[in-house]
Structures are given as structure tokens and as C-alpha cells.
């Protein structure tokens, strides 16, 4: 009787581990999908954080920092839209695309590196996977930027 209850308890632990592993995989895929969708906003977020931080460090308070961050992000997006609307050369459009894809690549690298660190043993493959992730996220941002109207 004890062997049967021990094997049942062991089976339950194995099932729980499999369910936990499946949930982790689903969570990683959902985070990656969210990262793909939000990668186009990496530059406006960076600019907003910079403006908010500078305003807050100037002893202006949280409300002023949040307002400065929101205004900076909106102004950046509006300026990018205007620049794209009036850009005549492909080089100008490419420069704007690179400006939005570069911070997305940095964010993608760090996100994928965090996942790789949590799931892989420490090796050169972590760096390789992180760099591939950065390239994929930058490409996704570039693609979204080229076809989307912010």
C-alpha cells in the first residue's frame, strides 16, 4: 500500500513538473509575441524615460516628470510621422527606420538574453541566441515601422 501511494505521489510531481514546464513555454512565447508587437515603441519609450528622468532629477516632481515623458514620446512620434510624410529619399526613410529599430534591437537582445540565461547553461550559445533574438526583434520593428502608421 505504501509503494502504491508513493508511486502516485511521484506521478503527481512529474505531472506537475510537466504542467509547469508547459506553462513556462507558453509564457515565454506570449512574452516574445508582446515584445514583437511593442518593439516599434522602444525609441519613444526610451525618449520618454529620458525626459521624465531629467525632469524628475531637476526637482520638478512626479507629475511634471510624467507629463514631460508623455509629451516627449508624442512629439517624437509626431516628428517621425511628419518626417516620413515629407521624406523624398529612401535614405531618409531608412535612417528613420534604423532610429526606431536600433533601440528595439537592444531591448530584444536583453529580453532574449534573460530568457536564455534562465533556460540554458552558461555558454557561448547564450550570446549567439541573444544576438539572433536582437536581429529578429530589430527586423520586426523595421517591418512594423515600414508598414504601420503610428
Taking Cα atoms only, what radius of gyration do you get, to the nearest Å?
Answer: 22 Å
Helix content: over 70%
Beta strand %:
under 5%
The succession of helices and strands, N to C, reads HHHHH
Largest sheet: none
Unreliable stretches covering 5 or more consecutive residues: none
| Overall average pLDDT | 82
Number of strands: 0
Described by the principal axes of the CA atoms, the overall outline is globular
- The structure class reads mainly alpha
Explain what you see.
This protein has 150 residues and is mainly α. Helix content is 88%, strand content 0%. It has 5 helices and no strands. It has helices at 2-38, 42-57, 62-86, 90-119, 124-147. α2 (42-57) packs antiparallel against α3 (62-86). It is globular and about 55 Å long. The relative contact order is 0.11. The model has no long low-confidence stretch (mean pLDDT 82).
Describe this structure in a few short sentences:
Helix content is 88%, strand content 0%. By secondary structure, it is mainly α. The longest helix has 37 residues, at 2-38.
What is the topology?
Layout: H1 2-38, H2 42-57, H3 62-86, H4 90-119, H5 124-147
Helix pairs in contact: 1-5, 2-3, 2-4, 4-5
Which characteristics define this entry?
150 residues, mainly alpha, 0% strand, 5 helices, 88% helix
Amino acid at each position: 500500500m505504501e509503494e502504491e501511494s508513493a508511486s502516485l505521489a511521484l506521478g503527481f510531481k512529474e505531472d506537475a513538473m510537466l504542467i509547469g514546464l508547459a506553462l513556462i513555454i507558453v509564457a515565454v512565447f506570449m512574452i516574445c509575441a508582446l515584445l514583437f508587437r511593442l518593439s516599434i515603441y522602444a525609441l519613444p519609450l526610451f525618449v520618454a524615460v529620458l525626459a521624465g528622468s531629467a525632469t524628475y532629477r531637476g526637482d520638478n516632481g512626479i507629475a511634471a516628470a510624467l507629463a514631460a515623458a508623455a509629451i516627449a514620446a508624442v512629439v517624437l512620434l509626431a516628428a517621425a510621422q511628419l518626417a516620413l510624410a515629407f521624406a523624398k529619399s529612401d535614405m531618409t526613410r531608412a535612417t528613420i527606420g534604423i532610429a526606431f529599430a536600433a533601440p528595439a534591437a537592444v531591448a530584444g537582445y536583453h529580453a532574449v538574453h534573460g530568457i536564455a540565461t534562465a533556460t540554458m547553461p552558461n555558454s557561448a550559445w547564450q550570446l549567439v541566441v541573444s544576438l539572433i533574438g536582437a536581429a529578429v526583434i530589430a527586423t520586426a520593428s523595421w517591418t512594423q515601422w515600414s508598414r504601420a502608421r503610428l
